[in-house]
Structure formats: C-alpha cells, structure tokens
Amino acid sequence: MxxxxxESRYTKITIAGRNIRNHLPARTWKQExxxxxxxxxxxEYMVADLRQEIEKRRTFAIISHxxxxxxxxxxxxLLYGGAINLAGSVKGKATARHAVSDxxxxxKQRGISVTSSVLQFHYDGYCINILDTPGHQDFSExxxxxxxxxxxxVMVIDGSKGVEAQTRKLFKVCVMRHIPIFxxxxxxxxxxxxxxxxxxxxxxxxxxxxxxxxxxIGSGKEFKGVYDRNxxxxxxxxxxxxxxxxxxxxxxxxxxxxxxQEIGADACSLLKDEIELLDGASAEFDQKLVTKGELSPVFxxxxxxxxxxxxxxxxxxxxxxxxxxxKADIGQISPFSEDFSAFVxxxxxxxxxxxxxxxxxxxxxSGKFTAGMEVKHVQGERAVKLSQPQQLMAQExxxxxxxxxxxxxxxxxxxxxxxxxxxTTAKENFTFEGIPTFAPEHFARVRQVDTMKRKQFxxxxxxxxxxxxxxxxQEYKGGMEEIIVGVVGVLQFDVLKFRLxxxxxxxxxxxxxxxxxxxxxxxxxxxxxxxxxxxDMKKVIDMKGRPLLLFVNAWSVGMTLDRNEGLVxxxxxxx
Length: 575
What we know:
Elements: E1 2-7, E2 10-15, E3 18-19, E4 24-25, H1 29-55, E5 57-64, H2 70-80, H3 105-110, E6 117-123, E7 126-132, H4 141-146, E8 152-158, H5 165-177, E9 181-186, H6 195-206, E10 209-212, E11 214-217, E12 225-228, E13 233-237, E14 249-253, H7 258-263, H8 265-281, H9 287-291, E15 295-300, H10 309-319, E16 326-328, E17 331-333, E18 341-349, E19 358-366, E20 368-370, E21 374-377, E22 382-385, E23 390-393, E24 396-399, E25 402-404, E26 408-412, E27 422-424, E28 437-438, E29 442-448, H11 454-467, E30 471-475, E31 483-487, H12 491-503, E32 508-513, E33 517-521, E34 538-541, E35 547-551, H13 554-563, E36 569-570, E37 572-573
Parallel strand pairs: 5-7, 5-8, 8-9, 9-15, 10-15
Antiparallel strand pairs: 1-2, 2-3, 2-4, 6-7, 11-12, 12-13, 13-14, 16-17, 18-19, 18-27, 19-26, 20-25, 21-22, 21-27, 23-24, 28-37, 29-31, 29-32, 30-31, 30-34, 33-35, 33-36, 34-35
C-alpha cells in the first residue's frame, strides 16, 4: 500500500511499507495530488512487474534411476537456454569434462551426482529453475527433500530398462505432494523396449495414467525421430556433435508423400499403424488431471543426441504453471503477495573447502527478494539480514541482487538455520508446512579411530546430519558415546567417511548393522520401555529427542504393531 503525509513543505511517501528518502517539495495541494498520482502509477507498475516476473517462473526437479540420462538431459536444457556453450560428458570423467551440475570433489572423482544442484537459465521468455537431484546408485534423503521445493517433476526413464527402483521411491514423494509429473523416455537411439509395453509398465508400476504427446519412430540404429501428436508432423533429426545443439531438424507432415522417402516405407507404415492404435487406446490429454498429478504426459527422445529434447522443453513449459500458493499454518500464501517469504530445504557445508562455509538453500514462496534485506527468522524468533545471496551453476557462484517467488537462492548461514525454517517480511508470523524426515534404509555404528579427535568427530557428524545427507541416532537413554548413522543409500556412508577425513581430518571406523526399517512413534507421551517388541527391535532417539524403533525386517514391524494395541508407527518423521 502507499501512504502520503505532509511534513512542512515536503511530502513523505511510503510505498509497500518503505519510505522514499528523497522527500519531494509540495507547496500546494495540487502539487501534492500530482505527486500522489505519479507515485500511485509507480506502485501499480511495481505490482505489475512483480506479477510478470513471478508468472514466467518454472521450478521443477528431475528424477531418475542411475544412468537413465538425467544429467545429460539437464545439460541439454542449459545448452538450449544459452547457459552453457558445451555440455559436459557424464562418462569417462577422469579425462573428460566434468558435468556442469557436478561440483563436490567426490563427484568429480567418481563421475556421479551425490548432492542436489540448483541451476537457473532463461528460455523462450521463461525463467527456469532446475533442481537436479542425484542419479547415482545410492542417493540421500536430500534427494527426497529437494522435491519439496519443486512445483513439478520430470521423470527420466531409460527406454531399455523401464521403471527402476530409485524412480519408484522418488515417484512416491511426488505423489505425496500431488505435483505434476512429466515423463521423458530417454535413450531411444539405443535398442529400447516396446513402446506400448513401456507405457503399460509406467501405469501398472506407478499407478498413474499416461498420455503420449509425441511418439518415437523406431529405436537404436533405426531411430528416425519423433511424431508430434498435436501438430501431426514428424520431426527427423541428424546425429549431432553430442555436446552441442548443432544439427538439422526437419518437419514433415504425416500425410506428406515425402515422409516415406525420408524415414523409409516400413517405418512409415508402422508409424501410421501405431498412431491409429494410440489414438484409439490411450488416455486423452486433460490439463486438470496433469496439474493434480493424476496424468503424466509422455515424451520420447535421446538426450545424448538431442532427439526430442527441445520439443519436450517447449511442451513442458506450456503445460506447467507459475509458482502456486504454499500451505502454511495460517492458510495458503499467495506467490504474488508483496511480503517476501521462503523456507529452507537444504543446507550444504564446506562447498568451498578453503572457506569452510555453510550455505542455506531456500525456496522463495512469495514476493521479491533483494540483496541485504532484513527478514524474520520465525523459528529463531529473530531478525536476520540475508547476506551474500547467490545462485549457483554447480561450483560457480553468482552473487544476485534480486529474486522472485519460485526462485531458489543460497544465503550464508552462520549456523542458525535448520531444514524447514520459515523466513518472511510479513507482519503476522506464520510457518510453512514442515518438511518430513524420510526413513533411512541402511544403518551403521560409527566411531572415530583417534579418541583425541572426539570433538572434531562429533562436530563433523552433526554438521553433515544438519545438511540432511545422513541421520544420526543415539541409544535410547544413552549418550553420544555410541552414534548410529542412518542413510537412505549406502553410498552416503562413503560420502560421510570421505568428508570426515578431508574436511574434518577425522578417520572413522564403521560397523554395519542389520536393521532395514525404522519407524517414528506417533503416540505422544508413550514410553518406549512399555512396548512389547520382537527380539531384534532396537529403541533409539533422533537429534530432536524423538523416540524411534529399528527393525531387521518388515515382519518385525508388523509383529510389534500386533503386540501393542493402539501403537501408531510412521515411515516419516513430522515436525
């Protein structure tokens, strides 16, 4: 809102709660009215500019099983958006370029993505934020948590392998959030499974209806391109220089006699038969069902050779929306609110080993961010100045002056922020819906080799746990003498060992534990000692003092529930 008050021969103007320092002379009421009209138009322009900036934002995560081509697809997006000139190779990283989205030392050594990268680029009038989640064999809880900051998800599937284990896990989180899910079936330039069987597998395995937007013409050496069901045109592609977007793209109508010469008589005949079958059997496109996460538009292509990548990006941007309202304890928070608000979804320490820094990544949910602005840290009950605001392109940092709802920014964290914290400039305090703690699947008892380095050990383990890469537990009614580490993927044990040795100079010894299931006790005030469990059940507490139960197998979980009437156990820890 704008307020105007008279101060002697000067006019004091407040726009959106901010006083304009350069007071303007106003000797007469006509002059005051003139100034008021001008500034009112200025305020209207500022509000319109805020809306325009937010409306062009698209924030999505890319999920996949290892080696499905997620990082390659991400880099091709950046390539088309002009953010990079040459895509890095994700293979042979000992001698080749590192992928742009891989930055941690262990990632460069192994050629995998361990942490989640945040990448921004502009394309066709949109400002796009990609949350690039890990795609290695084992991933961390950070992967799940990153999906809490996305408005939609792109699911990358290897055409020769179909739906795989990690894809299922990540898909469940997307379903929990009811966000739109778009499918890109990759590697069609290699021998792929039958296309109809791939769609059937997605629907049966994941329980979501599919609607192909385009259709592949062959696979492997016979891959000719894709057919767009909307334009009814076939797009044929030449193989490209794999790290570039060079190459020819040729469109031919499905009814054009020249199509047969272009792709061959057999391929043309098969394509027309498949289109006829597809039109009669597949689900119709319904934007409402897509928005609710009940229908997944499906695209085919090859990220490595650029087949179908830009086509997918174009359709995807048209089918998605600007940032949506976020649920808070006082109701929905509109992204177009003039008040800035955000929540912390990721904390990363020691991104620069030389500086031992700590960065809190936050998703802006409403309003506009400006560098150096002071906000309320709701959980900390204090005012904080957000210093060193930055956006990242992997290891490269860019200091920013402003950002809008939908954007992801990183700010310097002196150790005051936690996952799920809310920050806002609104007068009324509120907190966004908490980020769940996801159940680890692998556990180990961890000790430092050198007892004299106990302090560094506890500090390192605690800090890495605060980032969300691992979870740490203590024996029930025990102390920090025995630390049990839980991870979603076993590679995080290697990451923990590597980081403690390289960043904290602490060598550790790990003892793997047989537990595979962990459950939070939902019954408030329940004494874990009163429970009748199985012989393999172990009682622990997490960093927040909440009681949990560890089990060797699913049978033990079920038996414990049967023996304790009214007991409620959860796979998610909630705030």
